[in-house]
Amino acid sequence: MSPLPPQPISPLDGRYRGAVQGLGEHLSEAGLNRARVHIEVEWLIALTEHRLFGATPLEAEQARALRQFAADFGQPEIDELAALEATTRHDVKAVEYLVRRRLAALGLNEIAELTHFACTSEDINNLAYAVTVRAAVHEVWLPRLRDVLGALRRFAVEQRTTPMLAHTHGQPATPTTVGKEFAVFVARLERVVARIEGVAVLGKFSGATGTFAAHVAADPAADWPAISREFVTSLGLDWNPLTTQIESHDWQAELFSAISHLNRILHNLCTDIWTYISMGYISQIPQEGATGSSTMPHKINPIRFENAEANLELSSALLDSLAATLVTSRLQRDLTDSTTQRNIGVALGHSLLALDNLARGLDEIAIAPAALAADLDANWEVLGEAIQTVIRAEVTAGRSSIADPYALLKELTRGHRVGAEELRAFVHGLDIGEAAKTRLLALTPGGYTGLAAELVDLLPE
User: What is the value of pTM for the model shown?
Assistant: First the structure.
């Protein structure tokens, strides 16, 4: 057997690449290296602007050229870095040498020694991860989530009055509306989204053990904490002044835990939709040319929701591992975070793939009104709750002498199918006021949805 040409091992880089490739812009090795170059360049420019060690601010065109080098980081730089790292055996040192080469090409050798000045690799890495993870979440992942939330919200509003038999413990229960049930998921998801959007993304820039020791040795008079704060916040990050060699990664743990929580809510949504499809409450819209089963031509399988389920599970497993692992670093530094963080893109990629499947799946389903109505009409016994509750109110008001309303309805309905006429005959014979009796006689399973429709209006904007 002939060997295959080089192939991706991860399906995210193979079969599913089209759905997740936006993350590669930020969370690939190339995306990380571009961010590293960006941080190195900005630190170099910041040092000259502070006129440290006799340096003078770069001319506008020089600064622009340096920043353009970082912005234009592409395949030539990727290849050059690979060659450098083959020699250095150190990824951040290779980035430093790449920047030094560009300084030479731009005639800026006089400031070459300010490249990576007083930095430990983690000063560069923590900021690079901060800007790339933030961009990946806010520019790629959250917009796709918003697509799904928008579709769910529209579905909830459109179906706010569509009655549906509820099932608690898998058994027929007090009816609800389709819209209210979907609105529950929207509300749950929006709460977690607010947490995700509110995570403060931290950055440190304080040297080998977080003490500014080398900085002070080079210039005791400089206000290094102020310079560090200014630099970190200039990147749109929150400054963390109290760290070891690494930024402690707590913000990443907060973020990944929140995304994992959101994944699990989406997983619950998928299993519910799958179940509604199985029950016939939701129908699937046939897609032109699609095959449901290789042997059963009639089938339309809920593959979008099944695929989303599996990818949400994979994503949460990875995110949970990241959140648990990254908060621990032995003493002032160990390297467990280095390889761990390289899987952030994989973890978010599986979540993004799930969102893609969910968005497509939601676009391919419709409510089945006949099935909903038939199930409601077959379960008149669910009105037992309403009847016994009304009797209790009538007893309290002095309009009924029934001794045990719950037991009365339990005897009539528990484990029995009770039809419309049987239930109405029962109500006619009740010792309750006429107004209450009239309300109960007008009640149907499809009309017994309380304020379900109005509750949809309480969705947060």
Answer: 0.94
